[in-house]
TrEMBL record:
PANTHER family: CADHERIN-23 (PTHR24027), CADHERIN-RELATED FAMILY MEMBER 5 ISOFORM X1 (PTHR24027:SF414). The keyword Disulfide bond does not apply. Keywords: Calcium, Membrane, Repeat. Coiled coil: none annotated. GO terms for molecular function: beta-catenin binding; cadherin binding; calcium ion binding. It is found in: Membrane. The gene is Cdhr5. CDD domains: Cadherin_repeat. It comes from Oriolus oriolus (Eurasian golden oriole). It comes from the Eukaryota. Residues 18-129, 145-249 form the Cadherin domain. One of its GO terms (cellular component) is adherens junction. One of its GO terms (biological process) is cell-cell adhesion mediated by cadherin. This is CDHR5 protein. Gene3D superfamilies: Cadherins (2.60.40.60).
Length: 290
């Protein structure tokens, strides 16, 4: 008598990840659809030889949608949305491996793998001239104001020129890279009157100016290791007559009258003449027509 015994496989084993903890560095400028972790590194095995079903989630707020798996049976992780280092620089993903579909009513065994993603800042932005203000609170765009200064006609200044709102200065906004910046004048420097120090950005004179014409210089800040990353700022230099005398007030003392309960921005009137607004004026012997 032959007796055939068939052993039925019971679902008594959980899936197993070869590497339950992984860390990947991802450059900020990685292209969408690029594979971040290969399928082979993430595939789980099951001693029951069941089909494995995968699900990927994130544990960090506001990082949903950036990473995904290729399919329910393919755990390869790829970049689904472009990264921005200013929004977040790391996240943690949880990859679940189940031996039954999520919707199955049968008993399901599950394994979990943790994938830590570290975003590395890339050289994506050109230098910023300082001071600057963020555009609509967007930290990826900073708008700077033009620089301005003055020189005296027919006078040679040997010191770096004083500028408003401050000295010429630019930085690499990709601050974890912080590339060195060099400066150069690329426009508006008629007769090579001015020079800019390549490293400090200090603006100096090479010769005197004999006409009252103003200069509108264009100063370029360039990253040393990536010359395609540069910005240009304007520097207006006004040529004025030398000031030998300080301004002075026409009177040493001004007397005014105000009335009670007047609204804000009401006039102050001259003392003794309540119909004439009080006016304070100054003169300068260097500029008699001003």
């Amino acid at each position: 008598l032959e007796i055939l015994v068939t052993i039925l496989n019971e679902n008594d084993n959980s899936p197993v990840f070869a590497q339950p903890n992984l860390t990947r560095d991802v450059p900020e400028d990685t292209k969408v659809d690029t594979a971040i972790v290969a399928r082979e590194e993430l595939s789980a095995t099951d001693a029951d030889l069941d089909t494995i079903y995968y699900e990927l989630t994130t544990t960090v707020q506001d990082t949903d949608g950036y990473f995904a798996i290729r399919g329910v049976n393919n755990p390869e992780i790829y970049l689904q949305k472009a990264l921005d280092y200013d929004k977040f620089n790391s996240t943690m993903l949880l990859l679940y491996a189940r031996d039954r579909p999520v919707t199955s009513p049968d008993h399901t065994n599950t394994a979990t793998a943790t994938i830590t993603i570290v975003i590395k800042q890339s050289d994506t932005r050109a230098p910023w001239f300082l001071p600057c203000n963020y555009l609509h609170n967007d930290t990826s765009i900073c708008i700077s104001s033009p620089y301005s200064g003055r020189v005296n006609i027919s006078e040679m200044s040997t010191d770096p020129l004083l500028l408003e709102p401050g000295p010429i200065y630019a930085v690499d906004p990709d601050y974890t890279i912080s590339d060195r910046i060099v400066y150069s004048i690329v426009g508006g420097n008629t007769d090579e009157v001015f020079s800019v120090h390549a490293d400090t950005g200090n603006l100096t004179m090479n010769k005197i100016v004999t006409s009252p014409d103003s200069f509108l210089l264009q100063v370029m800040a360039t990253q040393v290791s990536n010359v395609r990353k540069y910005s240009v700022a304007t520097v207006e230099i006004k040529v004025i007559n030398k000031s030998d005398y300080p301004p002075y007030f026409e009177k040493g003392v001004y007397n005014g009258t105000v009335f009670t309960r007047l609204p804000r921005r009401s006039f102050v009137y001259q003392a003794g003449d309540p119909s004439t607004p009080l006016v304070i004026t100054a003169m300068d012997n260097d500029f008699p027509d001003v």
